[in-house]
Amino acid sequence: MSTLLEVSGVSVTFDGFRAINNLSIAIGEPELRAVIGPNGAGKTTFMDIVTGKTKPDEGKVLWGEKSTDLLKLSESDIAKIGIGRKFQKPTVFEEQSVRDNLAMALKNKRGPLSVLIWKAGAQDRARIEELAEEIGLTERLDHRAGDLSHGQKQWLEIGMLLAQDPRLLLVDEPAAGMTPAEREHTTDLLKRAAKTRAVMVIEHDMEFIRRLECRVTVLHEGSVLAEGSLDHVTKNQQVIDVYLGR
Amino acid sequence: MYIPRQTAAQTRRSFLRENPSVLWFMGLLGLFTLGVTILSEAFGIGVISTNLVKILGMTLCLCLIAIAMDVVWGYCGILSLGHFAFFGLGGYAIGMWLMYARTEIVIRDSLGRGTIPPTETEVSEAVAAQIFGVVGSSELPLIWSFAGSLPFQLAMVVLVPGLLALVFGWLAFRSRVTGVYLSILTQAMTLALSLYLFQNDTGLRGNNGLSGLQNIPGFLDVPQSIISVWFFWASSLALGAGYLLFAWLVSGKFGSVIRAIRDNEARVRFLGYNVEGYKLFVFTVTAIISGIAGALYYPQAGIINPAEIAPIASIYLAVWVAIGGRGRLYGAVIGAALVSLLSSWLTGGGAPNIDLGFFRIVWTDWWLVLLGLGFVLVTLFFPKGIGGLFDYLVRKS
Amino acid sequence: MRYVRHCNRELRAAYIELLKQDAGQGAEFPLPDLLVAKDMTMPRHALLATLALCLMFLWTPASVAAQSETPLQDVLQTVQEQVARPSRAQVAAVLDALQAADAPGTMEFLNRWAARDVFERPEDGLFFYAREGESRSLTLIDLDTGADVAEVTSRDVNQIRVNAGVRREIEGALVTFELLAPDRARRLAAVRTIARSPEAEHIPVLESALAEEQDGAVAERMARVLDLLNARFATDGAARVAAIEGLSGDITTEARRALNQILSTRSEFAPEIPEGVNVARIRTPGEDLDLIAAYARLAEADLVPPRQGRNAIRDALRANVVDGEVGGIPVHQLDTDEMRRAAYTALEEAGSVAPLVTQSDMEAAVAEYVFFDAYIEPDQAVTDAARASLDSTRTAISLWQFLGISLDALSLASIFFLAAIGLAITFGVMRVINMAHGEFIMMGAYTGYVVQTVIPNLTTSLIVALPLAFAVTFAAGVAMERLVIRHLYTRPLETLLATFGISIALQQLAKNIFGTQARPLTSPDWLAGAIQINDVVSVASIRVAIFVMAIGFLLLLLFILNRTRLGLEVRAVTQNPGMAASMGINPDRINMLTFGLGSGIAGVAGVSIGLVAQVTSEMGANYIVQSFMTVVVGGVGSVFGTLAGAGLIGALQKGIEWFNPANTLAAQTYMVLFIILFIQFRPKGIVALKGRAAGD
User: Fold this and answer.
1) Whole-Å CA distances, B227 to A173, B34, B147, B218, C390
2) Which of A94, A221, B15, C138 is deepest in the core (most CB within 10 A)?
3) Which residues of chain C make contact with A18, given a CB cutoff of 8 A?
4) Given CA atoms C605, C417, C477, C572 in this order, what sign does their dihedral have?
5) Whether residue C306 has a cis bond before it, omega within 30° of 0
6) Mutating which of B70, B111, B115, B116 best tests the C interface, going by the most C Cβ atoms within 10 A?
7) Residue C682: closest CA among chain B residues belongs to which residue?
8) Which DSSP letter does residue C519 get?
9) Which residues of C240-365 form beta strands (DSSP E)?
């Protein structure tokens, strides 16, 4: 397992409020990692920094074997390099069919001209069918994405992430608003994905994280409080203080 | 990878099969063109006057810029309030040739009657004095250096709007100006351009604009009745080709991506698409088509001046598209044709005034009030415009 | 006071004595450099008219009371013969008598006398003014009462003819009268009149008046004007230089005009620079003088043969066509300059045309002469002093001009601020683009116009119009918010379009009601003038008022937003509508009130803009784009942002105009371009909200 993403000494301030404070975190490939923390711990801001949405005031974000500096890249270049992100709120293109949503995410050339002359080949079609099966949406391929249920939208978004074939998957609260059965399905999806790539899951739900059976990083006030197995971190007095209050 | 020959044909067939409205539109446009030709004075029974042929031809050009606007706004979500600037620039580019070449013919004719043939310098000086006398100048501005060359000016029809859109779009999209800010910025662009052209010393005759554009050099002996039909055909052809181009553009994955940009541009960025590049591409292509539409429009109108580029014109363009129905190309065509024809009929005094006894509705006075209020109602209650009615009918049947 | 008056009387007597002596000897008044001065000075009757005008205003009751009660007619009768048949020798006696009596109406009489507007009735020798009636009839007017006396024909009375010499005497007397007047304001007015149209003969008059002057400020002013006169008209070179040096640093128009007058040049040429010519600048052909132009001037003076231009060559060829050929070259080949020149050379060799003047010919001819600009003033010391004096004022003038531009910019910024602040409120709080904002401005202006037609008193109508305009547009804004905008909150781009629909409807409606003609909105008299700081800088009072109004609105808004419950709620809704709603604030009500407030301010802005610009149905459209830019450049959602935006745009527009004053269109173009570029680098405006509140 080699280090894929290395975040070191990153800080960011919004109008005097320090959202991320000297944060250092690394993830290898393949690996499944859960990130937990109370509200305002800086989980979402951390994802914003990695995906290029927010530029930090200081610190380094390095990627892959060549230690590429991600801070110099735009959002789309970061996505192209192999980082996929799933938002907290499911964001799929509701006006378009599930198939079009997946087709857009497929790992193909992204330039306007190549897209203009692109025509779904047999391979692409097969890949879409395959993904649809994996996320359980085979029946709904030609339906409007807006007509899907909340959980189905979450899966479609995960499906789009998988279609991008990223090396690192950043998943923000995937289980929010899901039924227990749906949660189980989601856990399976993530665990399967983590066999070949790095997956980082932000989640509140301890039960969900327990099922992921992975290494856990606890964030608090913008920096890492503890790291290790779930059992290890839940025994940590500081973590207990933060979560249960003093 | 080997692509079997029939794949291309298959692609074409499937494109048209997936978009039956394109076939419908082409058919109707063809019938309309044929009908107007048969009814025209020049090639038919003469029911439609030359003037009306011109108005219809101009309307086709407006429909062309309307579908360009629909692509940039209805599909890509950029509410550009500056596309008429590109339309006007296309008109100016072709207008320069029309005016220069015609004046040159006239000047050569009159100078050639002297005992000694004129030199090239004498001709160009006389042409310059003729064209720029109104703004108190007799020198040919630098931008007119190649005005005598039709290929050059035709290239300008495409290049000037295209380059302006490219540079402006690059600046605006690069700094992530979106939404109403972008609209205001495009409006500022067209305002700056029209103010610039209003100046006498910018080499485009200030507020006099370019005139006499209906006379086509080389065909000065051909009567307007015939020329009007020629331009009508050209406009119809351009609209058909433009419709086909845009329909192809917005179908398939490209259309999928730009609609995705319209709905959630940040998400598209995280999918790895260079959103700015797509916007710039759409903005520039639609600007070029607008320029071409303008180049066909102004020879039929006969005159172009900076007032044509004023911000209000571009806003009207948005109104047409909104009334016709955004996000569908035929909607834009319906909106542009309906509103612009209705507007010229009602404000041209063609419509009978209605006497209500206590109040007399004079259309020239009340048309804009009605259009404004009607537009508010459409926005409030029929956000899909007239095109939305089709959906309603289709769902019913 | 009494003493001064007494002194003045003595002085007048002395001056009149002086006049008498001059007249007695038949000597001319000293008139040096009259040639230079002639065409620049005001025509004489204009000067008199101005003086008379000053007098009419300044003839205050106090000074009337101080005068003797002897009627003018009686005074004139004592010198009846001299008045009726005036001559240079006799005029002094009349002036003396008038001087002594100081009867009311003396000034007017002198004026009219000089203008040949006084008539004598032969029967009784009485004098009258007259008014022309139908067919050569005249209505005689009494000198003292101004009442109509009788209707006569022009044959019944003698028009008193005053010749040029006498007229000059009378004028001198008029000026003296005023310069020595007991009233300080009258003396100042007289000095001002002299400064406006300076003449050589004012010098001694002014000198003597200055010697008597007791009031420090007036004396200083007199000395200044005396310098002005001496600078141009003094006979002695040294005196002129001294006077010119006295003018250095004086930024008044009259001083600069006098100096420029001295420095006026004419361009000349000669084989070599002649003696006694005061050369301003030598011109080198090819550098600061066009060779062809220089040669043309020589040709004009018949010193060289004229150069054949392209047209001349063509005409010569045309005149020499023989059998379709010119100089052996077929006519149809003569369509290039080379061929034409070849043909001309052929003709030249045949001797049928004048030899072609070549470039080297011209150079040689021009080299024979020196081209230079010479001062019309021959004395170099004078011109040098004038140049130095003028240079010394340059910095001061630039600084004053800069101040003037800044004031202009400030006033423009106030207008932009007034126009934009309402928009900033609605846009900032509700993220709603109101394209009809300009039409609200128009509605306000028309409200002002309607009020003015109902209430004739301008001040009252303005006081009524301001709140009424607020009320009208407030109501219109609330109605629009409730009926249209409320339903479109989730679709900002469509709000833009819907409000545009309202905008075109309102515009056309105004056109239907008020017509396309511009309607006047007259400002009351106390706002009509201008505050004159000096000759370089002046500010229209109305602009000051608008500036004050803008400041007032700024303070009012800051008060409302920061110190009232409404402001608190507005800010809460701006920053987080959801949170505000959950805390019991009704966002619908807040939105409605905010929109009403923004629209109401637009109405008030409309009244003030209407006072400086035309009220037309399109006036709103003229301000809307600029208002948007003000808001966007300043930064959305901040009153200070709008202030900064208005300031920047106002300063920019005036600044660009300064570099290219003739072309306001260009200024606007560059300003818009600047704004486009500015937004590239600061997309969120000058005062940008940061972090999550920015709502991106």
Assistant:
1) 67, 16, 22, 12, 66
2) C138
3) none
4) negative
5) no
6) B116
7) B175
8) B
9) 265-270, 279-283, 325-326, 329-330
Q: Side chain identity at A133, as an amino acid letter?
A: E
Here the tokens at position C244 are 């010119």
Q: How far is CA C490 from CA B72, C173, C479, C482, C494, in A?
A: 21, 83, 19, 15, 9
Q: Domain-by-domain residue ranges, chain B? A: 19-396
Superfamily designation of domain A34-52+74-244: P-loop containing nucleotide triphosphate hydrolases (3.40.50.300)
Query: What's the mean per-residue pLDDT of chain A?
Result: 85
Chain B environment of C629 (Cβ under 8 Å): 184, 188
3-state secondary structure of C371: strand
Closest CA to A160 of A195, A185, A132: A132
How many residue contacts between A and C have a Cβ separation below 8 Å?
7
Q: Report the distance separating Cα C504 and Cα A221, nearest Å.
A: 54
In chain C, which residues have their Cβ closer than 8 Å to the Cβ of A14? Answer: 690-692
Q: Are C198 and C31 in contact (CB under 8 A)?
A: no
Contact C580/C591 with Cβ under 8 angstroms?
A: no
* pLDDT greater than 80 at residue B15: no
Taking the Cβ of residue A118 and every Cβ of chain C, the question of whether any pair is shorter than 8 Å is answered with: no
Give per-residue pLDDT as tens, C195-247: 777 777 778 878 888 888 888 888 888 888 888 888 888 777 788 888 888 77
What is the per-residue pLDDT across B63-94, written as a single tens digit (0 to 9) for each? 999 999 999 999 999 999 999 999 999 999 99
User: What is the tens place of the pLDDT at every residue in B271-281?
Assistant: 889 999 999 99
Q: Is the pLDDT of residue C177 over 80?
A: no
Can you point out the beta strands (E) in A30-102?
31-36, 58-63, 68-69, 83-86
Cα C637 from Cα C425, distance rounded (Å)? 7
Distance CA C197, CA B359 (A): 63
What is the Cα–Cα distance from A92 to A86, expressed in whole angstroms? 10
Q: Quick one: which of C525, C554, C547 has its CA closest to C640? A: C554
Give CA–CA dist A190/C351, Å, rounded.
Answer: 105
Q: How far apart are CA C458 and CA C443, in angstroms?
A: 19
For residue A75, the chain B residues in CB contact (below 8 A) are 266, 269-270
Which residues of chain B from 156 to 215 reach within 8 Å of chain C, CB to CB? 168, 171-172, 174-177, 179-181, 183-185, 187-189, 191-192, 195-196, 198-199, 201
* Residue-range domain boundaries for chain A: 34-52+74-244
B249 in A contact zone (CB under 8 Å): yes
Q: Which residues of C touch A15 (CB under 8 A)?
A: 690-691, 693
CA distance C152 to C121: 10
CA distance A116 to chain C (A): 28
The C-alpha atoms of residue C250 and residue A15 are separated, in whole angstroms, by 54
In order of B31, C469, C532, C547, C679, the CA distances from C418 in angstroms are 56, 14, 25, 9, 22
Read off the amino acid at residue C414.
S
Which domains, ranges and CATH numbers included, belong to chain C? 2-116+160-245 (no CATH), 267-375 (no CATH), 398-694 (1.10.3470)
Which residue out of A47, A55, A85, A110 would a mutagenesis test of the B interface target, given it has the greatest number of B Cβ atoms within 10 Å? A110
User: How far lies B304's CA from each of B145, B149, B173, B308, B336, in Å?
Assistant: 20, 20, 30, 7, 20
Residue in A53, A76, A164 nearest the CB of B274 = A76
pLDDT at C127 over 60: yes
* Contact: B177, C683; criterion CB under 8 Å: yes
- Torsions phi, psi of A216, nearest 5? -125, 135
Q: Is the pTM of this model over 0.90?
A: no
